[in-house]
Every structure is written in C-alpha cells, then in structure tokens.
Amino acid sequence: MSSPTTVGFIGLGAMGEPMAHALLRAGFPVVAAAHRNRTPLERLAASGARAVAHPGAVAAESDIVVLCVPDAPQVDDALFAEHGVAGGLHEGSIVVDMSTISPVASRRFAERLAQRGIGFVDAPVSGGPMRAQSGTLTIMVGASDEHFARVRAVLEAMGTPHHLGPVGMGETVKLVNQIAIGSIMIANAEALMFARKAGADLDAVREVLKSATASNYVLEQWIPKTWLGAGFDGGFAMDLLRKDLAAALDAARSLGHPMPQAALAHQLYTLQAETDGKRDYTAIAKLYGAQEH
Description:
The chain contains 14 helices and nine strands. The chain is of the alpha/beta class. The protein folds into two domains: 7-166, Rossmann fold; 172-288, N-(1-d-carboxylethyl)-l-norvaline Dehydrogenase, domain 2. Helix 9 (169-197) crosses helix 14 (260-276).
C-alpha cells in the first residue's frame, strides 16, 4: 500500500490556517513553515503538522505544495526567493497556488516551474474563513488533466474543486466572481442608501427585493451579517477585493478587453480604502452616507 501524499502548506493566514487543518482532518501528512507569525504554525503543529524552518524545507518533504498568500509578489517570493519552494521541490512535484492573482501571473509561474520539471495548478477559492473551517470551499481549478487528477483528493479535502481548463482558467473564473461582487455591492449600497434617505425601512426593502429582479447573494446573505449586522470589522477585507479587481483589470488589458465598470469599482473601493481598507468591503456603503452601528 502506497504511503499518503505529503502536503506542504505555505501561507497560514485567515484562509490558509483552516484549510491546512482541513487537510489534517482528511488524513494528509502536512508540513508547514511560518512566514511572519509563528502562532498559526504552532496551532497547526499541535494538531499534528510538522513544522520546518522555511518554504524550501517544506518543499523538500512534500509531494504537493499548497500556497495561500495575498498576491502575485508573495507567490513569487514563496516560490523563487532564497530558501523558496522551487529550490526544495524535486522533479515531478506539483505546486497548487490557491491565492487569487492575475491569470497572467499564474501562467508565468507555471512556465518557470515547468523548466524545472515541476507542475503548477491554480486553484483559487470562494467561501471565506467559515467555509474554509468546514472544508466546504468552492475551488476553481486551472490545470492539465494529469495534474488535476493528481491533486484532486487534496483539493476535495478543502472543498469542491471545479476543473475549468488549463493553467490560468481557475484564476480567470475566480476573477469573474470578484468583478461581479465588486460592482453588485456598490449597486446595493447606492440603492439601499437611496431607500434609507427616502425614509424606507431597509429590512422591508430587502425582504421585497428577495423575490424581485434585483435579488442577489450579497444583498440576501452578506449585507445582513456585516453592514446591517455585526458591522464592518471582519468579513472580506476591502483591500483584498481591490487587489482582486486590479488583477482582473491586468488580465483584461492583456486580452484587449475594456472593463469600465470594474475600473470604476476599483477606484471607488480605493477611495474608501483610505479609511476602511482592512474592513469588510460592504464598508463601501459609507461612501454613500452609511453610519457605523
């Protein structure tokens, strides 16, 4: 009987730590290293992971290495800096990047790793920390058929993977989601603040809109938990949405495809992020006069 696949994990942040715990619960041996903060690594080690000194050491002990970091520069650093993953992996290993970055960058990383005989899969996720904890993330995957087959069980430990095509297509579809939610949230904020200004009860407005043509997930599920519920702290940081929209605009430029609405959304979030960048992106409602609870 073959030994279980050892999974290396780089990036134990708000999403990465619960994703790594999901891998442990599924029975995968996990190897990890700290980046800036050792506390998540210590919690993971207490659950059975092996802690090592740096990403290169993670790679040296792993068959598959998962990355979950903020943006393309951090992916580049994790892969190719001194003591990076690329230096520790052996030929035939696979890197699975679960960060949300530009598909242009994903294809560039894949080409560099292929020169070393290392596979690359892009697999960004949707669902937030709560679904990361329960192992029920939606995972959008760009990979060759061969590489997807090899990493599928690892991905299934963290959620439901959807193989969407070659490298870069996972990121493309994730950015489609981000383009949509970025603009939909602004439309929700503008409309609801119009309703409030006119004297309407927002709970009543939302209840009507659930069965009207304006119904949408952000309005029905997200806004009540954040802006109209617990407030703007926590949730999905506006700075991360801004980063995702920038990645989408970068990819669109490479395709010669205009996206004026996404560009406007990026500018509006950039304006509000001066004060609320680390808070949930529903804080864009403050641009239209929403008040703190």
